[in-house]
Amino acid sequence: MENQENERIKKAFQNKNWPEIKSSDSWNIFKVMAEFVDGYETLSKIGPCVSVFGSARTKPGTKYYEMATEIGQKLASVGLGVITGGGPGIMEAGNLGAHKEKGASVGLNIELTFEQSSNPYIDRDKLINFNFFFVRKVMFMKYAQGFIVLPGGFGTLDELFEALTLIQTQKTAMFPIILVGSSYWKGLIDWMKNTMLEEEANISTEDLDLFKIVDTADEAVNEIFDFYSKYSLSLNF
Question: Which domains, ranges and CATH numbers included, belong to the chain?
Answer without folding.
Answer: 14-230 (3.40.50.450)
